[in-house]
Design brief:
By secondary structure, the protein is of the alpha+beta class. Helices cover 24% and strands 29% of the residues.
Length: 136
């Protein structure tokens, strides 16, 4: 991770999504300021706390930016509201799109059920690495 500035080298890292194409698509939304929220199953190892910073990787595993968690809440799938869906920034940003996309995403992982508990996280973009605009 030589592209990561010294002050960030001890941070944990992750890529959004479950594959290179989705990682790049969601990263682009983060860099453009469209995506400011994400969710995961409550049992994932990448649980976060407010104030924690993360290195976000692209689909090739290259570090592209730093985000900072601003809020974490736990909600059941059906309790996710339109405001959170909008902040996730995907598709047309509607709750219907969010529900369909996340049913598919969690279904691919074999984890989906209507009553599943999610860790819902809001974050802010801290820094984009200079070569981040050259993804894909």
């Amino acid at each position: 991770m030589s592209a990561v500035p010294e002050q960030y080298r001890g941070l944990r890292s992750f890529a959004f999504g479950d594959g290179p194409a989705l990682a790049d698509e969601l990263l682009d939304l983060v860099i453009r300021g469209v995506k400011t929220a994400t969710c995961s199953t409550e049992d994932e190892p990448n649980t976060s706390t407010p104030g924690e910073r993360w290195i976000v990787l692209d689909g090739r595993g290259e570090p592209r930016c730093i985000i900072e968690t601003t809020e974490v809440s736990y909600r059941r799938f059906g309790e996710v509201d339109a405001a959170f869906a909008f902040e996730e920034g995907e598709g047309d940003r509607s709750l219907d799109h969010w529900r369909n996309a996340h049913r598919n995403y969690f279904g691919r992982q074999g984890k989906f059920c209507e009553g599943m508990m999610l860790m819902c996280e809001r974050f802010r973009l801290i820094e984009v690495f200079s070569d981040a605009e050259q993804t894909s």
